[in-house]
Target: 30S ribosomal protein S15
Amino acid sequence: MAKKSEEKGKKPLIEYDAKEIEKTVIELANAGQTPSEIGMTLRDQYGVQNAKKLTGMKIEAMLAKHGLRGDMPRDLLNLIRHSVVLQKHMEHNNKDQTARRGYTLAVSKIRRLTSYYQKSGKLDKGWRYTPETAALLVK
Model:
């Protein structure tokens, strides 16, 4: 009798060893993928639904174990990218007050996250947000 996953037309899942998954995660990280992209690649191409169940560690923990995690948290980096996009938009559209408000809100979120990450030790104590450093980080 066929399994339910085969009945619905899904591919049967392939079993991998924890070391194989960890090796694949490291290779994908070295190729420049973010942890979320690595998770989607494992799911779509390798048939690994949940890396944590098989390895006992999250993808970010594996990257931290091997020293491949970025020096800045992802949520802060995404907000900085958003602020740079808004800043470039406001250079060309200086009367767009909605964009100006969005930029102000993004900068305030960045400053709050910065103080949180400085208190928790994930970010250097001397790091400050400026539009110039933000533009350099995004490039």
Summary: The radius of gyration is 20 Å. The CA atoms of residues 68 and 114 lie 21 Å apart.
